[in-house]
Amino acid sequence: MKAFWVLLKKEWVLEWRRGYAFGGILLYLFSTVFIIYATFRTVDILTWTALFWIIAVFVSVSAIGKSFVQEGEGRYLYLYTLADPQIVLAAKLLYNFALLFGLNLLIWGIFSFAVGSPVQLKGQFLLVLLLGSFALSAILTFISAIAAKAGKSGTLMAVLSFPLLIPVLLTGLRITQNTAAIQGMSLDTSGDFLIMFAIILLSMGMGFILFPQVWKD
Amino acid sequence: MALKSEGMRYLTVIFFWLLCSTPVLLAQQTDPDFMRSMGKMYVVVGVIAAIFLGLIVFLFTIEKRLTKLENQIKEHE
Amino acid sequence: MIQKNWWKGLGVVILIYVFVSGLLVPLKPGITGVSPGSAKTGDVLSVAVEGYNSFFLKGAATQKAWLKLNNEYLLEAQELEVLDDRHLNAVFTIPAFLPVSGKVQDVALILDNAIDGPSVLPSAVFITQDSIQPERGQREWPVVTPPDLHVIRSFAFPFRNILAESIRNTYFHVPLWFAMIFLFLASIVHSIKYLRSGDPRADHRASAFTSGGIFYGLLGVVTGAIWAKNTWGAYWSWDVKQNMTAIALLIYFAYFILRGLFEDPEQRARISAVYNIFAFSLLIPLIYIIPRLTDSLHPGAGGNPALGGEDLDNTMRMVFYPAIIGWTLLGFWMVNLLYRIKDLDFKYLNAKSNR
């Protein structure tokens, strides 16, 4: 358990020591929103939700893509002696989840500032952001470990993860559109939340079972 | 060697797509009324033709791989 | 030889059965069209009916026709004139008012005789009314008293209007999807086996089964496109099931790209096995849960089971289930050839180019 906190702290320290990576993501975010504002000016609910989730996915892929690549060969070996692979994964996952949730909140904030926010049911939207960030980080953390093993991250990360992210994206979209609907017109989204839970459980469970296989060399 | 075999793979995939899309293209060329005549029986014919072409493509790829393997084993010995 | 390969022969025999019965068994009688397709209230409507595989002449003595409105009202034809086996004229006197409060109402046409049995054409005629008085209409339209329709037990496939003969594609297109899933499942099993044993032959099987699955998936897309064009009007209609299959294929293309990146065969086998299992487990919600949430053109949407009730009758089941087994066995045969080549390659050349 101690190793878990140490690793979590390590992620945090590393992120701040290499501040340009985080700054890069922020800049990416700002410039995308600027482009959207420059092209759309006003967006309807459908476009808003679609843009929101697409940006969230792209930002997540680029934020988590480096998660395992940044560990060089030497540090891999060191971590290997230090802790169980599951603990390494858990630490990465929790860190990435916090990072993604923060980024998603930021996207929401910037969006509301630049083009407004159609979200009516704020609680439900926060919940879907939370679950969506969790699902995204669970899938992407694992895929980034695989991509790091192949030695090529950028495009490979996208190729491997995009088809797997589509269910998260679609479910997130559906719930978000519901949160933007006029009060009383909203659909029952409990099924979508269940699917989100199923995706999280599946990806986390499979991740923890399979990660030792990726880890060992 | 590795690159060549990868290239071959993409070529085969492209070839596969071309061959498989022939029935679709043919169906596009032909009058839709023809496809729907005789109670749409020609739709079934088109589907079976596509499957048949697919199987031929499969035989073709197997043939290629086997020939390559035979040649390599011959060189090896 | 025979003891080892009996299942290949079984697959071929089953497929021969599927092809013969799937193509030769006739369709049940049906109605392909009526004219005119619209009428006004108060008309004496004479409709010319065109039948399919029907025997109007033989069954003329017992021939009857009805117009059915909303499963509630049933109007019998006053006069019937059989022209030949495929054509007849039916005369209906339509009451002055409709029993509904809409301006236009569609009614179904039902035919029945002792030879053909009943056949239905939904939305055959559209009836328009000028003034709306549902109460009067409810009095004037005869309420359904279930007519005794003739039950014909024949070995024939059902007639569906937009499908007609193309209903036979159920044995050539649909089983490809089932077989694809079975091949992917087999690939997962071998990936798990590889992770447990480290036997390179298990890896060959896993990748060969994936190729076979992709092959069937592509065939399914192509055959589905041909069928869809002639029933729904477009090759690709962004239907949920089509999208999901496209995503599944994307995942497995990614699997092969991943394989191509590793030089070390042991690492390639291990990492691709891991990706295979991980991706497939995420496919499960994708293929089966999400299509049920949204509307789909495919049967099985909206929560009703795909293989129940209306979509597949007992005659079709007798061909459809064997078709699934037959196509799956054929797929396993093809995969068998693929991984035997891989095994040989590995044995003689030590897997340098064996991706």
What gyration radius of chain C follows from the Cα positions, in whole Å?
27 Å
The computed structural class of chain B is mainly alpha
Physical arrangement of strands within the biggest beta sheet of chain C: 2-9-8-4-5
What's the SSE pattern of chain C?
A: HEEEEEEEEEHHHHHH
Q: Say how many strands of chain B there are.
A: 0
Q: Distance N terminus to C terminus of chain B?
A: 18 Å
Quaternary state of this entry equals: heterotrimer
Q: What portion of the residues of chain B fall into strands of 2 or more residues? A: under 5%
Fraction of residues in β-strands of chain C: 15-25%
Q: Report the span from N to C terminus of chain C.
A: 29 Å
- Average pLDDT rating of chain C: 83
Estimated helix fraction of chain B:
over 70%
Which residue ranges of chain C are poorly predicted, with pLDDT under 50 across at least 5 consecutive positions?
Answer: 300-310
Largest sheet of chain B: none
Q: Which overall shape of chain C is indicated by the principal axes computed on the Cα atoms?
A: elongated
Q: What is the helix tally of chain B?
A: 2
Can you tell me the overall shape of chain B?
elongated
Please name the defining characteristics of this protein:
heterotrimer, B: about 80 residues, mainly alpha, 2 helices, elongated, C: about 350 residues, alpha+beta, Immunoglobulin-like, 5-stranded mixed sheet, 4-stranded antiparallel sheet, about 50% helix, about 15% strand
Describe this structure in words.
- The complex is a heterotrimer of chains A (217), B (77) and C (355).
- In chain A, helix 2 (19-40) packs antiparallel against helix 3 and helix 7 (122-150) runs parallel beside helix 9 (190-215).
- Chain A has helices at residues 2-17, 19-40, 45-64, 66-69, 73-82, 85-115, 122-150, 154-180, 190-215.
- The mean pLDDT of chain A is 82.
- Chain A is mostly helical and 217 residues long.
- Chain A is globular.
- Chain B has 77 residues and is mostly helical.
- Chain B has one domain.
- Chain B has helices at residues 2-29, 32-76.
- The radius of gyration of chain B is 18 Å and the shape is elongated.
- Chain B starts with a helix and ends with a helix.
- The model of chain B has no long low-confidence stretch (mean pLDDT 74).
- With 355 residues, chain C is an alpha+beta fold.
- Chain C has two domains: 30-140, Immunoglobulin-like (Sandwich), CATH 2.60.40.10; 164-349, no CATH class.
- Chain C has a five-stranded mixed β-sheet with strand order 2-9-8-4-5, with no helix packed on it.
- The longest helix of chain C is centred in the last third of the chain and has 36 residues, at 314-349.
- Chain B binds chain C through residues 1-2, 5-6, 9, 16-17, 20-21, 23-24, 27, 32, 35-36, 38-41, 43-44, 46-48, 50-51, 54, 58, 62, 65-66, 69, 72-73, 76, and chain C through 23, 27, 32, 52, 163-166, 168-169, 172-173, 176, 215, 218-219, 222-223, 225-227, 229-231, 235, 256, 260, 263, 334, 337-338, 341, 344-345, 348-349, 352-353, 355.
